[in-house]
Design brief:
This protein is of the alpha+beta class and about 230 residues long. The protein has a 4-stranded mixed β-sheet, with helices on one face. A two-stranded antiparallel ribbon has the order 1-2. The protein is globular and about 50 Å long.
Amino acid sequence: MSMFVLLVRSMRFPSIWVFSMILVHYLRVGRPLFTVWLLEELGVDYELKIYLRDPKTMRAQADLGEAHPLGKSPVIEDGVLKLAESGAITSYLIDTYDQDRVLAPSRDDRYAYAQYTQWLHYSEGSAFLPLLMKLLLVREKEPKPALISQFTDGELNLHLNYMSEFLGDKPFMLGDRLQGPDFGLAYIVSMAKRLGELENHAGLERYIDRMMARPAFQRAVERTGEQ
């Protein structure tokens, strides 16, 4: 991993410049792994502060609330900046550290950048909710609420078909190279796979296998201790 530090001006002492390394507040099991994967792809140095889930509720333990009032993860600190929300973190890291715009189109290409932005926010804005509902239903004892179950299954099929059709035979969601939206979409597809929802979506199955086989993803798994 390359040494990459940011020189930032102190907010309290503007005449003083300090070196900073990104700190990732990392909650085990879930979305933060895909933020660490992005950092590995960028070759940026970072530190992890690991948080654990309550084994009964699977919610974050109370100490994560010290990093962010919502007690959610990922949260990053980069110098004086503290940032939450996965899509915002992805945008910030790419805008700040991907100087050659390898992971994003040029803003001058309005069509490509608009499509990039749509898919960047789609994973959290639209696709995640039915997966979360499915996860909660799986943990419920029988009988499951029929109305919610039917709604969730219908929404899941809608989103998986949408992603499958758009992906087609492309290696990545937006074409022939990895871009920002892939980090969120890979999380969505991996979650669907864990829930056994990819049986009729071979293209998405191949997609997530490609993402997880990338050396940077494997480094992220090793660094975080995820399985």
